[in-house]
Specification:
Elements: H1 4-35, H2 45-50, H3 52-66, H4 75-87, H5 92-110, H6 116-146, E1 155-164, E2 169-176, E3 190-197, E4 202-209, E5 219-224, H7 236-244, E6 250-253, E7 270-275, H8 279-289, E8 296-302, H9 311-320, E9 325-331, E10 342-344, E11 362-367, H10 369-381, E12 389-393
Parallel strand pairs: 7-8, 7-11, 8-9, 9-10, 11-12
Antiparallel strand pairs: 1-2, 1-6, 2-5, 3-4, 3-6
Helix pairs in contact: 1-3, 1-5, 1-6, 4-6, 5-6
Length: about 400
């Protein structure tokens, strides 16, 4: 536990971090990659180039400083980070490297203002956070190895089949090369895939939600090919998967991890709200819920029918419990007429009947950060308990809440 003097120093420097945080984190990654280029294989280099990862780290450091008196406020964010780390095979000894270069970056950017007292305080605060994460991650590694079919290192798989789900999304059916069983996963969890990027001379990991229920034989991911925009190029790994990964192609996988998962022990109503490829983890949840007695509302938004994926699988799940599962689809540009459960426009929760506030319903949101914020804020305004709102952000903003 940090002493009072250390906590006061951290809180006093929080405004400075808010002002210089992004510059510090950019310098941190520059320093670390210069001295440890092998770590480029661990970090998403596309997010590095776009500035997403330095921004996310700056937000995380600032949030930690603001809540240094009560880090338990960040418990859910810390849990999320721990799952991300084990999915990427982060090791305890790498925390020392990160700490060295984070403190060095603070000193580089702040210069003489970064006194020995400030650096010592931040060293203690960083070590406290590192110890928390190392302990959590050790437990996750251990649990993964000990479950039937489980593993903790990168494991070789092969693409056994690929299915086009829409104009943008392809599903990959991944079987272990040794034909040994794969472990069950909780609906909502993800795996990391790792593959060579020839143009970069690096192995790069990416995380993709599991889009089908556990079956003990294979894992399915459904990948949207990320088209470039003016401010960034096409997605490197999604493009490789779409273009190069045919049947028989080898790929390395992490075991399933992730703290965004269906609370299967509950009997309360469930509302699943997703946009675009954010459907993938919620589809897995929907299939699991179809075998229960829980009331379910499934909401999905897409630009048009051409990019709308998994409509048939959603309908199959709905037919398993027609009196318990309702669906609402939003199409920004509908082609032709609308079905009874379809709406024109973007997802708007004001246009559909949500469960009563006193029902204790759980809400699961998945999509990009603006999508999450919009619908989370609407639910909070309606009086939904924050503890009943669960989300997965598709991007690098790990402290979106």
């Amino acid at each position: 536990m940090l002493n009072t003097e250390t906590r006061e120093v951290i809180k006093a420097t929080a405004p400075v971090l808010a002002e210089h945080g992004l510059t510090i984190t950019r310098r941190f990654y520059q320093r670390m990659f210069e001295q440890h280029p092998e770590l480029k294989n661990l970090f998403n280099q596309s997010h590095q180039a776009a500035g997403d990862q330095p921004k996310a780290l700056a937000n995380a450091v600032h949030a930690y400083a603001m809540h240094i008196d009560n880090p338990q406020v960040l418990a859910s964010a810390i849990e999320r980070i721990a799952h991300k780390h084990v999915s990427l095979r982060v090791q305890p000894e790498q925390y020392a490297i990160v700490g060295e270069h984070l403190l060095g970056a603070i000193k580089d950017i702040l210069g003489d203002a970064a006194t020995d007292q400030i650096i010592d305080a931040w060293a203690a605060a960083y070590q406290q956070l590192a110890d928390i994460l190392i302990e959590k991650e050790a437990a996750l590694y251990r649990d993964s190895e000990q479950q039937p079919g489980g593993w903790s290192d990168w494991r070789p798989f092969v693409v056994a089949d690929r299915v086009r789900e829409s104009a943008e999304i392809v599903s990959f059916y991944l079987h272990p090369q040794d034909d040994a069983p794969v472990p069950p996963h909780r609906p909502g969890q993800y795996i990391s895939v790792r593959t060579e990027v020839p143009d970069w001379g690096l192995k790069q990991p990416r995380q993709y939600s599991l889009s089908d229920e556990p079956n003990g034989r294979y894992l399915r991911i459904s990948v949207k090919r990320e088209a470039g925009r003016e401010d960034r190029p096409d997605g490197v790994i999604s493009s490789l998967l779409h273009e190069k990964f045919k049947e028989g192609t080898a790929i390395e996988l992490s075991a399933p991890f992730g703290d965004f998962r269906l609370h299967q022990e509950r009997s309360t109503p469930v509302v699943l709200i997703c946009g675009g490829v954010g459907i993938t983890p919620l589809l897995c949840m929907l299939k699991a819920l179809a075998r229960t007695e829980r009331q379910v509302l499934f909401v999905h938004g897409a630009r048009n029918r051409e990019v709308q994926a998994f409509r048939d699988e959603v309908e199959a799940a709905r037919r398993q419990g027609p009196n318990r599962i309702r669906t609402a689809f939003f199409l920004e540009t509908p082609d032709g007429g609308l079905e009874p459960d379809e709406h024109h426009g973007q997802v708007d929760l004001n246009r559909i009947d949500l469960p009563a506030i006193d029902s204790g319903a759980d809400y699961y949101l998945c999509g990009p950060l603006p999508f999450i914020r919009l619908h989370r804020d609407l639910l909070l305004d309606r009086g939904v308990d924050p503890a009943n709102i669960h989300y997965e952000v598709f991007g690098s903003d790990v402290l979106a809440a």
